[in-house]
Fold this protein.
Amino acid sequence: MATMFVEIVSPEAALWSGEATQLMARSSEGEFTIMPQHTLTVGDLVPGLVRVTSAEGTESFIVHGGYFNVGTGTDGQTRVSVLASVAEDLKQLDIPRAQSAKDRAEAVLAGGDRVDPAAVSIAQAALQRAELRLSFSSK
């Protein structure tokens, strides 16, 4: 079976790399699947799941945005790079921590006009990240 080389990285860590048969994710254009011999392309990633299927099974990662690149290595093999602003292995998701972050963000936002606009912006982003984590916690 044909494979491609896939790597999923964020500024904090390289989360996964290896041979895969497909990668599924979502961009601003919609959901997509990349397989070996895919057309060369670059695109954005919107917050959601990235799933990589390899001979060992399927691995799932939550990404909070980023980009992907499909290219060809010197050996002619398809190479896929997922460059995420924030990425987490779904198996290592800390649900109590995500719930606590959601609660803290909601408390800041409940402060209304008394809250500094910068704090509101930070809380809104934290709330979006926490809700994304919690939405995939049972998958």
About this structure: The mean pLDDT is 88. Residues 94-135 form one domain. Strands lie at 4-9, 14-20, 22-27, 30-34, 41-45, 48-54, 57-63, 66-72, 78-84, 87-89.
